[in-house]
Amino acid sequence: MAIGAPLGDPLSEHDHGEKREALRPGWALRREPWERAELIGVALGKKPADLVIKGANVYNPYDGEFHRGDLAVSQGRVAGLGSYKGLKEVRAEGAYLIAGFIDSHVHIESSMAGPLEFAKCISAYGTTTVVADPHEIANVAGAKGFRWLIEATENLPVNVFVMVPSCVPATPLERGAGIIGPQDIPGLLGAPRVLGLAEMMNFPGVLAGDLGVLAKLTEAPLVDGHAPGLTGPALAAYVGAGIGTDHECVLPGQAAERLSMGQNVLLRQGTAAKNLLELLPAVTPMNSRFCQLATDDRHAQDLHLSGSINYLVALALRASGVSRPTILNMATLNAALHYGLRDLGALTPGKIADMALYPDLYDFKPIKVWKAGKAIAENGRSTFVPPPGQDAQAIAARDRALRDTVRLGPVSLEDLAIQATGTRIRVIGVVPGQVLTEHLIMSVPPIDGQFRADPGKDLCKLVVFPRYGDPWPPAKGFIWGLGLRRGAIASTVSHDSHNLIVAGMSDPDILACAKALEAMGGGLALALNGKVIASLALPLGGLMSELSLGEISAALDGLRMKGAELGFDQDFDPFMTLAFMSLPVIPSLKLTVKGLVDVQTFQYVPVVLE
After folding, report:
1. For 206-212, which contacts have Cβ atoms below 8 Å and span 24 or more sequence positions?
2. Is the pTM above the cut of 0.70?
3. By the number of CB atoms within 10 A of the CB, which of 81, 127, 265, 269 ranks highest?
4. In angstroms, how far apart are the furthest CA atoms of the chain?
């Protein structure tokens, strides 16, 4: 099996009907009779293997044990474990061979890198399969963005399986450029490597029995969930609608309740939302089979420096109370079983030989990584060479449709004013390490008839500009606890509609950031004294760079250094936190382009309390 062959849906683009229905709810790569015959001959020792990893400690997730032996690979699949000879042999005495890790839920766009750079990075750290939700690019470009991601993830050193975004826009309370309605779902489900429907964030719509929302659920063989804070009868109703996972748990009791109702729980450790260690006490020998690992949103710096699922595995193993086999299964077989990836998740006979060799079981930084038996990384560096047709020129031609997506209407300093028509204001309260926020009420003395930012109180003005050409004024509010002391910070990575969001202590700095991001086609920026002092362009949909992941990481280091001059703590990622301040499906208070939203009541509320 050639590494250049996409490990995707075995059906062609024109064959999505009756045959695909027969495959549900699983996925397996088609094997010809001669391939099976070849593997049988190798397994019996009658033919030499293509590759043999000699003397490795091979992890078997079915019994939770490491078994010493020679792992034989034929036609990209595991032939057997025992004593074998191979055309190519790799000495691995004492090292640990584990199936490629699986990320159960990730937004590739949140890495700020293109899919190729993302895949090269995470595969070098031992993650060889992801279940991706292209929700971000779909909100920017609709079905066109979804199809772009399908095309851009072919022939990579990582299996990229895709879930169809379920909420584009996430709710009627915000406005993006893309729209994916119930009528679009069946066609998108038939695309290559699609497994089901991505996180159903519109839990109020589910609970209200909205027929449009429920129609989306009806079409999909698998549905991922997103139900922060739901409990009791409301959670039962949500699960009963057919939603099989949740990755929004922040407390062990929430995870335990979901597991008891039959959901799989994805233990998340991203850049902004870090819940893994908090949730581990909910994992028991009885329910661990239904627990998986996910990064959700992980920034370029974290990926570049410490990797993906390998980091979560190392972090979990350093905590007490959960066994090593349990953690390794959460990173491999559990996800494969849930998503029906029958060829993945273990190094047992017939499975695809996606695997990584580790010198120890502590840091989980692999010596070597193979994709379908072909070496793709060594000592933390990708050795993957894209196949013909995937050169820079071809990628540029493909990506042209995602450029120039930031178009602001006329805006002036006067548009940023918040008139003091009362004595108190609603304020978004940042919760450290979480994407949840608090709904604060603060008394703030007006200045010249306006409510203004106050560095002494850590109170910033927050502004969301419509970026898709809508002739609307920006939405305005306040945020507390961001850590900004002067200047402004801005981003077009602004979940989920990805309008242009800016937090600042001065209106001129807020406006300078907005204008700069429009000129560069999207990205990140910091401003001080009316001028941009640092930026990173993200020209692909305002979400992704064309730089390598290492170059993106270096640029983010520069932004972080400049951010310290504005007051941000060096251990805090203000851009990732800012990106979630307009997401009206995670409590409690968020600012969308349409106004301030109380997520608990799912209604707009005024900033100023009269």
Report:
1. 206/237, 206/238, 206/241, 206/243, 207/234, 207/237, 207/238, 212/181, 212/182
2. yes
3. 127
4. 88
Instruction: Summarize pLDDT for 357-374 with one digit per residue, the tens.
Output: 999 999 999 999 999 999
Q: CA dihedral defined by 576, 580, 582, 584, rounded to 10 degrees?
A: 170
Closest by CA to 506, choosing from 482, 524, 523, 531, is 531
pLDDT surpasses 90 at 515:
yes
Which residues are bridge partners to 32 per DSSP? none
Q: How many CB atoms sit inside 10 A of residue 581's CB? A: 25
- The CA angle 229-234-240, to the nearest 5 degrees, is 115
Measured CA to CA, the distance from residue 583 to residue 547 in angstroms comes to: 27
CB burial class (10 A; 0-12, 13-18, 19+) of residue 475?
buried
Give the single-character DSSP code of 419.
B
| Exposed/middle/buried for residue 34 (C-beta within 10 Å: 0-12, 13-18, 19+) | exposed
Domains by residue range for the chain, with CATH: 100-345 (3.20.20.140), 413-609 (no CATH)
| The dihedral formed by the CA atoms of 292, 296, 298 and 303, expressed in degrees to the nearest 10 | 40
* Beta strands, E only, 335-423: 355-358, 368-371, 374-378, 381-382
Return the ∠ at Cα 344 (arms to 309 and 163), rounded to 5°.
70
pLDDT confidence tier of residue 571, bands split at 50, 70 and 90: confident
Helix %, strand %, coil % of the chain (to 5): 30, 30, 40
Q: How many residues does the chain have?
A: 610
Angle between helix axes 549-565 and 115-124 (nearest 10 degrees) is 90
Quick one: tokens of 146? 């979804």
Identify residue 256 by its one-letter amino acid code: A
Name every residue whose Cβ is closer than 8 Å to that of residue 227 and which is 6 or more positions away in sequence. Answer: 203, 235, 238, 243, 246, 248
| CA–CA gap between residue 146 and residue 558 (Å, rounded) | 31
Q: Which two tokens stand for residue 184?
A: 């679009």
Question: Tokens for 284?
Answer: 């028991």
